[in-house]
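W.,

You were right to be curious about this one. When I first looked at the sequence I had no strong expectations either way, so I just let the prediction run and decided to look at it fresh. Below is the sequence, 59 residues in total, followed by the output.
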Amino acid sequence: MKIEHDRTLYKQRNRIERMFGHLKINRAIATRYDQLASSFLGMVHLATARYWLKFVHTD
């Protein structure tokens, strides 16, 4: 039995889920050590920047 789905939407969701998987490599994000939402968001920003730099800064 084939289940109908929106292929484009599925691809976009998959990309976002993979991005969060990469971010959770950072232990502070995976376990959420920070008690304040602002501290946690700052850590997410740092982890995202580190992940992004891997693609931008290639030797």
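Here's what jumped out at me. The longest helix spans residues 37-56. And, maybe more interesting for your project: The two ends are 48 Å apart (CA to CA).

Coffee later to discuss?

I.
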